[in-house]
Fold this sequence. Notes:
- The chain is built from 5 helices and no strands.
- The chain is mostly helical.
- The longest helix has 43 residues.
Amino acid sequence: xxxxxxxxxxxxxxxxxxxxxxxxxxxxxxxxxxxxxxxxxxxxxxxxxxxxxxxxxxxxxxxxxxxxxxxxxxxxxxxxxxxxxxxxxxxxxxxxxxxxxxxxxxxxxxxxxxxxxxxxxxxxxxxxxxxxx
Length: 133
């Protein structure tokens, strides 16, 4: 029995529509644009209702929309550029190390200043030009 040409055409059209929707979704995410059903539908040239009937695509839209909502900004960072927990921990560790180094430097400089001011005061006192007396 020969395959039904109408069924084949419908299957091709469905796959083409899916690929457009997936491509639009990837482009929106990559560009950092807001990802919503309406935005994906507009970019792909498909209806929102059709997107809701595609479980994998609608799930991805919901996940990306939630990520955008969690960050609180409409122009979210693309998924490929978002910081991971490990990278955030590494940055925090580096920042804490730098803060400790700066605190140590600050304490060292305060001691040097106190010593220099003490030496200056002693020199003034010995010379009889002490401004405090």
